Amino acid sequence: MTQVTERGTRLPAAPRAGVRRRSPAAAACVVGGAVAAGLGLGFLAVLVIVLWISSPYPDSGPGGALHLAAGLWLLAHGTELVRYETLSGVPAPVGVTPLLLVALPVLLMRRAARLGGACDEDDEEVLPATAVFSAVLCGYLAVGALATVYAAGGPMPADPISAAWHVPLVAVLAAAGGVWGAKGRPLGPLPNWLPGGVRRGFVRPRYALALRAGAGGALVLLGGGALLVGASLAWHGAQVQASFLSLTGVWSGRFAVLLLALALIPNAMVWGAAYALGPGFALGAGVTATPLGSAGAPALPRFPLLEALPAAGPGTPLTWAAVAVPVVAGLAVGWFAVRRAREVSYGETALTAALGAVVCGLAMAGLAAASAGPLGSRRLAEFGPVWWATGAAAFAWTLALAVPVAVGVHAWRYRPAAGPGAGCVDTDADADVPGGGGWHDSGVRELRWELMRKASGTLVPEIVPVAPPVPPVEVAPVAPVAPAPAVRARRAVTVVAGLDLGPAPVAPPLPAVPALPPVPAVPPVPSGAGVRVLARRKPSA
Fold first, then answer.
1. 431 pLDDT exceeds 90?
2. How many CA atoms lie within 13 A of 27 on its CB side?
3. What was the pLDDT predicted at 76?
4. Which residue, 86, 211, 352, 531, shows the most beta carbons closer than 10 Å to its own?
5. Helical spans, DSSP H, in 284-415
6. How far apart are CA 277 and CA 360, in angstroms?
7. Strand, coil or helix: what is 533?
């Protein structure tokens, strides 16, 4: 104490009330969000700079390449770009977002939010989920605003209104997914501001099952769309190759075209799914490609993927076969909507399948909206599938097929087992028993228990049949009988003739015999009344 007072060292003062301490964890989350945005920008900048260096016709310096990289980063968030250098002099919007390019900012933002919400050391400060979400989002949006301002001086600036809501939307969804994953992916409880009926309803397992069924149907649709696109590319292989080779003659340009085609493959999968569902996709103003045919001549630019479009004119049996894709999707939704529990009713199964169809329709509507957009100002102002038509068609197809399939699978999976007495079950008697239906006596319980026992080895005991209990026999009461007078009974004497009462011969000693195992005791024979005593015959000489 004297050393402190003599040297005049100040003691640390206690924090005053009302002054919030700066959190290093919150600052680290803000820096993490900014780093995630910077990594995405840096990756695209390096790619564009490499292509610019290898190009034999550099139209602008490195500044133009960096401006273009910032514009591509904003396009990856769904922002609409504006192209001013057109033949007509009218600015043309570019709103078709390569869906594979969207994965870059989403993964980086999700990783930043997950690292911000994780805590490895015990003494490290743990921030709540809302604080991590807000801090990471602030850092990411700050870099996004700077990128929007910087891209305005490039050849393809971003539309400020489009960037004002597309960039925050992608960042919010990615950050929410990262924070949710960092907190262990909790599924509840729901917020208290929701009505009680809604919170109780979402606890039921039908909603998780409907999400799985709807996601399965959407994946089947996307897989069918990819199959259609691949078959069409193989069918029009010569046209695709000619278009790829005619765009540019240098390897750097062909590499850029190849990268763009790869980034647009998810868009082509969604377009193929919309084509199989029936609404199709627009190829310009007034031109729509459907399985029934397409009318009009679209003004399309030369690009390898566009060469695989179906020819103009009425549909053919080959194009009509595309409807098999939504049929398989409806069957998948119905199959995944069945719960593995006997107590589920048919109405519950049908409702789960219907909710799965709703999830599938919403997913396809969102994907259709993200994969479409304008490519010009006049005839190419409409390009891609219509989101509401695609979602409605996906819902109608899956609803019409999923509900009967789910009910049929439920009835087949839990049908009564066929056995010798399967047809002799008294259904009227079982109807009066709570939880009846005859399945306890039909052998299903024993079959399911045997399957479980074989799968688990010796963990599940074997069912031993037990004989039914014998009902007790009621004995009728007997009237008391008056006691008889006591009479002295005579002793009965049994005379046995022919017995030899002489001394018995002595047998020679037997050799020692090893001890034998003990013999189980034989239960005594109950004695009965009136046993005869036979005379022992004398052995003949």
1. no
2. 4
3. 94
4. 352
5. 317-320, 324-336, 346-371, 387-413
6. 12
7. coil
The type of residue at 447 is L
| Residue 174 neighbours by CB under 8 Å, 6+ apart | 105, 106, 107, 109, 110, 113
- pLDDT of 4 strictly over 50: no
Residue position matching structure tokens 């001394």:
503
CA angle 333, 277, 281 (to 5 degrees): 140
Average pLDDT over residues 503-523: 54
Residue 306 carries which DSSP code?
Answer: G
- C-alpha count within 13 angstroms, C-beta hemisphere, residue 274: 31
Structure tokens at 355: 């909710």
Torsions phi, psi of 264, nearest 5? -95, 0
Q: Mean pLDDT, the chain, as a whole number?
A: 78
401, two tokens? 């097929």
Place of tokens 């919030």: 20
Q: pLDDT by residue (tens digit) across 127-162?
A: 788 889 999 999 999 999 999 999 988 888 999 999
Report the candidate in 304, 259, 272, 302 with the shortest Cα–Cα distance to residue 100. 259
pLDDT value of residue 124 = 57
Angle at 73 between CA 72 and CA 74, to 5 degrees: 90
CA 202 – CA 208 distance, rounded (Å): 9
Residue 157 makes CB contacts below 8 A (sequence gap 6+) with 71, 81, 82, 151
Q: Which helix (H) or strand (E) holds 94?
A: strand 92-94
- Find all residues with CB under 8 Å of 370, minimum gap 6, and list them: 78, 97, 99, 102, 270
